[in-house]
Each structure stands twice: as structure tokens, then as C-alpha cells.
Amino acid sequence: MKLKPLFSALGIAGLLTSSLVAQQVPAPNSFDDLAQPSADVQMPKEYAKTLAASAYVWGWPLINQHNRRAKITQAPEPSLMNGTIPVAPGGHLAMLHDYIKPEQRFVACPNQDVVYGLGYMFLDKEPVVVQVPDFEDRFWVYAMYDARTDQFSELGEPYDTKPGFYLVVGPNWDGEKPEGITAVVQSSTEYGMVVPRVFQDETAEDKKAIQPFINQVVMYPLSEFDGQMKTKDWSQLKSLDMGGTGSGGETQWVVPENFFDTLGEVLDVVPPLPGEEALYAQLRQLLAVADRDPEIKKTLVETAIETDKNVISEFLRWEHNGTPAGNRWNRSTHNAEWGVDYYDRTGTARSNIYDNKIDETRYYYTDFDSDGEQLDGSSSYEVTFAAGQTPPVNGFWSLTLYDKSHFFAPNELNRFSLGTKNKSLKTDDDGSLTLYVGSESPGEDKESNWLPAPQGTFCLYIRAYWGKPAILDGTWQPPAVKKVH
């Protein structure tokens, strides 16, 4: 299935075109008029179905973000949701103190290169202060996302960010920078979130050395700011049973049966981008008709279920994410700076939500070997980086293996990725680096370079943090995944 043509057929292209044209061509009604749904509109079922399918694909990332925020901020204090994911009430964050656990199902495509944090902001209520300690020469980045999953921050080593206190404010804030605040970061929506990432290598020594740094990664409301760097021992977080995480695939953050019950609330709190006014007006009219017409409401629910199955589920296939990068790999496009790239925004929200921006991280992914065959644990593969051709980065790189649902696959080594963090990788005599991928060990002498695979299908994923020019301009190509047997 080719998703981009299907995406257009669903009407996204038409909706976008109509909203952009509306900026240039005088309309008989003002947008203020359009924003008020008409009480006497009779909407044919097939029209409602077409518009609903477009709305579902367009709004899927926004509903996803909305539902995650609603769940996570139920935590009464910084905690670990079900012992795996940091959670905190609005205006605060929580940090892990080690790599993310393989059993978590909050977010697909996690990595075990960094120590993660997570926090949500209600900036319509109060700005928040985010602490940046002196990380010395350790790689770090704080990615901040708005309600659309666009990243609005530039905080991290790639930006030469200085230690200090950073005030995060909403889009309508026009106050003065308080004394003691290093800089102000303005969100594009009233709701925001932050995901700190701090690099850690595989050694016990580094796991100990990182603790003083991450213990000063703290967020709190402006009213609690006193100019002093606060410290929190994140290793002491309590586990909080919040239910609903399940196993196998990612937690179902978007339930199609409930999608249109929530869409109106999202439209109210996430303002349209320039050019989206007409789209918002059409969606409000659709919801208004559904409120008074049970048959149209039924059509919306049926369409959401069908679109989730036929369109959204296909985004788990990497061929539908980003652009070709050579050797059967795709590379990420417009990471976390989606704007009106609704296709990649939705594809990433389903497959690997919360990308970093490209100047922070470039992602490469594949489901296929060099012959175009699905990767499967019943076979063995080699991934060889020629001498000097590992991903060219200023930060770090890794190759991660995920199961068919984009989560870690349990294995005897408890190993899910290989790269910069690994201190025992062996290079070949010619200086190249060969990584072995498969369910069977390549032999004791090669096990340091072995990435264990599950029985069944899997995929591979390369991260290049703080890429050099060949990463940024897309000229670096990942190596072929060669099937050995």
C-alpha cells in the first residue's frame, strides 16, 4: 500500500489547499462567521465520512499528545508509572536514573543511550523554570514539544546552552525576564512537554558518574523559583500503579471510538496554524452536525475505526516514514518541525513519537535486508561500517533493534543496541566495524558485536546525535543489511 497517495485521496491535500487558498481569495463569509457552526446544515453521510477520515489522520498526533498529557499528569508527585516511566503533575518533571526499562510501553522506539526525563507544562496557568546544570563534556539535550508534537526549544550541547535557569512561557506571555533567569523559552501552545536526554555509556562507572548531573535536572512553577539550584535524588522515586500500560505494542493513546468526543476540546485549546482556519471551521461544523444527528455520529465512529485500521496502522512500516536514504533504509524528514507536513507528523506520532530536531538527531530505519526481504530472526545478518564510515557525529550514534511493534525484544544478553556507548566493540583488521544481528550467537569471539534478534520479524534503527554535515545534508548512507544465512 502506498500511503502518500492514499493520504491525499482521504482529503488532507484538499483540506489544506482550501485553507491556504482562503488566505488569498476573498470569501463570502469571514472566518469569524465560519467559526460558528450553522444550526441548519444537512450533511450527507458520504461527505461526513470523507471529512471524518481526513480529520482522523490530521488530528491523530494532537489527540495522542492530549491523552498522554491527561494520563501522566494524574501523578500526584514525581514517580515511576508502573515502575518504568517517569511521571509528574503538571509543571513538574521526573527523571529516570538509568536506561529506560525494556518492558515499558509508554512510547515506541526508546533508546538505551541516554537517561530520559519527562514532564508536562500547563503554561496558561503559570510559566515553569527548567534547571540546566553544568553537564561538563557530557552530551545532553532538552527537547520541548508543543501540543502538535512540534519542538519549540533549542536547549542542549548542540546549541552551546549555558548552565542556569530557563523560563518556559506560553505563546501569549509578554512579561519581563525575572532576575536570576538565564533566558526565556516561548512555547507555541499553552500546553507543552519536555523530554530531557542525557548520554550515558554502558559502564558501571559512568552510571555512577551521571547521577549528580541528572539529579539537578528539575522543573517547577515560576512561583517556586528562588535562584538556587534544586536537587532531587531520582533513584528514590516510588512506583505508581496507573494501570493501562499493557504489553506487546504501545499503549493505545488514541482510541478511535472516542476520537471525535475529544477532537472539539483539542480544537479549543490548540489554535490553528496560519492557513488552518478553514480546516478548523469544517471540523467544528462536522462535530456540530454529529451532535444532533445520531446517524452522522455513528458514521464518524465507524470511519475512525476503519481509518485507524487501514491508514494509521500502516505507519508502523518504515517505508512510510521519511525519505529513502540508500541501501533499503529511510531517514527522518522534518523531525519535530512538522508545520503543515501532516503526513510525516502523523507517521512519526504512530511509529516513533517525540523525535529530536534534525540538528539534534537524524534517524534512519529499515524493515528490510539488502535484497528487500523482511528482517526475521530465523536468519542472520551483518551490518558493516567501512573504516571511518560509522555515522559522522559530534555526539553519539547507535544501532537499535526493535520488534514488530517497535519495542525492545527480550534476549539473553539484555542488549538492545550497540554504538558509541559500548566500550567492548571489536573492529575488523581493516578498521571496519561489523555488527552481527540475529537470534543465534555469531560465536564467542564476536559476541561483543552481536545484537540479538527475536524469533519473528524485527526492524533496525540508527540514531545519529548532533550530526556532522554529511548527516545534516543527507549525504551519509547507512550500510547494507546483508543476510548471511
Automatic annotation (TrEMBL):
Residues 361-468 form the DUF1214 domain. Keywords: Signal. Gene3D superfamilies: Domain of unknown function DUF1214, C-terminal domain, Domain of unknown function DUF1254. Pfam families: DUF1214 (PF06742), DUF1254 (PF06863). Residues 92-221 form the DUF1254 domain. The keyword Signal applies. InterPro entries: DUF1214 (IPR010621), DUF1214_C_sf (IPR037049), DUF1254 (IPR010679), DUF1254_sf (IPR037050). The keyword Signal applies. Residues 1-22 form the signal peptide. This is DUF1254 domain-containing protein. It comes from the Bacteria.
